[in-house]
Write a structure and sequence with these properties.
The protein is an alpha/beta fold. The protein has two domains: 6-13 and 244-423, no CATH class; 21-240, 3-Layer(aba) Sandwich (Rossmann fold), CATH 3.40.50. 29% of the residues lie in helices and 20% in strands. The chain contains 14 helices and 15 strands. The strands form three sheets. Strands 12-11-10-9-13-14-1-15 form an eight-stranded mixed β-sheet. Strands 3-2-6-7-8 form a five-stranded mixed β-sheet, sandwiched between helices. Helix 1 crosses helix 2 (56-69) and helix 7 crosses helix 8. The protein is globular and about 70 Å long. It starts with 5 loop residues before the first strand and ends in a 24-residue tail after the last strand.
Length: 426
């Protein structure tokens, strides 16, 4: 099959990164007077989630040092629901992948699965909290505020979701998603979150907002009294920074997917897929088919998200660790996200098999978009047929023209080098 030439394109995305992240953490926490909420000798539980957040180890280490300077004894606990195969060891390992270890951040990591009940909401939803966190003098959350892959609302992913679902471990996450199937996830996040707040254990949180380059762009120390309203404001702001691909294409190629990239493996609002497999449900560019080449090295072989693809490679399927994959997907009531798509031994065969399915008789008219992953949209490749669309967009610059290039095993040679900070461990 004759494939078109590709244009390597750079997208001008505003860089909002904070020059000194550690200093900004200290400034935010001091201004919010978090230390005044506890007394020297108290223990504070710091909940940290499972996303690949840029600078997360630096941020957590700075939060830990703030509490230690105040004479408070901090410890870290995983606030990540069913992730890490819903096991204590697995969740500690997720944190370790991001550089969050006792030696790395300067305090103990306490990972276990026992929870305590915090009573029921008006809808009968029982709320839970990690027992070790509940037994501490107070609980603080550190997490990123971001749009959610499953729904659109005024509160999506962030501190409130961590408080509602992350703190409840596997027992809570499973129950909350079951209710969300009927009531809606935003409703459950708000109602369970309010029940958790009523426990009096939450001190507040440090909200992390990232720009379109996934640089740390804003840190917001949010006191418990303002968590819900500040969550809404922060989500609205970060949505305004979101990066998109600039044009429709028949086939979208992704080098990798993974839990470190998105909760759904790929950002559904970038690739325009619904978590239940719906095609192009969101506003923005539309893609007829998605080809996923491999799993990210930082996804612990979780295959969550491959079900959103139309075709994948044998090597991706062979890498999947099914235990964490099915635990996470079934807990979230999204079995479609882990369906095994059609798969072929090589990239070349996958492309040649899927290209005739986009509804174009002349296959030379088929257009392609190619990205490394849905976190990295500052540079991508587009078919040469899309040149006019590119040239009329002032935010785009064509760097060069290249061919689809394959190695000796008929697998694509990616034009995108790995971005080190995508791991979030700096």
């Amino acid at each position: 099959m004759q494939l078109p030439r590709l244009l390597l394109v750079r997208q001008d995305l505003p860089d909002r990164q904070i020059p000194d992240v550690a200093a900004e953490v200290r400034r935010q926490l001091a201004a919010a007077r978090f230390a005044a909420r506890l007394k020297p000798g108290d223990r504070v539980a710091i909940g940290v989630g499972s996303r690949g957040i840029h600078n997360i180890a630096t941020i957590v280490r700075s939060v830990v040092q703030y509490w230690k300077d105040a004479g408070v004894e901090p410890f870290i606990f995983p606030a990540m629901g069913s992730h890490g195969a819903a096991s204590a060891a697995g969740q500690a390992d997720v944190l370790a992948h991001y550089g969050i270890t006792e030696s790395g951040v300067g305090c103990p990591i306490v990972s276990q699965l026992e929870v305590v009940s915090l009573g029921k909401t008006a809808d009968g939803i029982e709320a839970f909290m990690d027992r070790t966190a509940y037994e501490a003098s107070g609980v603080m959350l550190v997490g990123r505020v971001k749009w959610h892959t499953d729904f659109a609302g005024r509160i999506e992913s962030g501190l409130f979701k961590m408080m509602a679902i992350g703190l409840g471990k596997f027992a809570g996450a499973q129950r909350y998603h079951a209710y969300a199937y009927r009531l809606g996830l935003e409703y459950v996040i708000r109602s369970v979150g309010r029940q958790v707040l009523a426990s009096g254990k939450i001190l507040g949180g440090l909200a992390i907002l990232e720009d379109a380059h996934h640089h740390t762009a804003k840190l917001d120390a949010v006191p418990v009294e303002e968590m819900e309203i500040r969550e809404e404001a922060n989500l609205e702001l970060v949505k305004s920074w979101m990066a998109h691909l600039p044009t429709d294409a028949d086939i979208l190629i992704l080098d990798e997917i993974g839990k470190n990239i998105s909760g759904a493996g790929m950002d559904t609002k970038v690739v325009n897929r619904g978590i239940q497999g719906q095609y192009n449900p969101w506003p923005g560019p539309k893609f007829e088919r998605i080809f996923v080449r491999d799993l990210s090295e930082l996804t612990y072989n979780s295959g969550v998200g491959m079900g959103l693809g139309d075709v994948v490679t044998d090597r991706l399927v062979n890498r999947v660790d099914w235990e964490p994959t099915w635990v996470n997907s079934l807990t979230a009531n999204t079995p479609s996200a882990i369906r095994t798509p059609i798969h072929f031994p090589t990239d070349r065969e996958a492309i040649e098999r899927i290209t005739p399915t986009v509804g174009k008789i002349d296959l030379r008219e088929v257009t392609y978009a190619w990205i490394r992953n849905t976190m990295e949209l500052g540079r991508f490749a587009l078919s040469e047929q899309l040149r006019s669309e590119i040239e009329k967009n002032p935010a785009l610059e064509i760097e060069s023209t290249v061919e689809f290039e394959f190695d000796g095993e008929n697998n694509l040679i990616s034009p995108f080098a790995p971005v080190p900070e995508a791991s979030g461990t700096s």
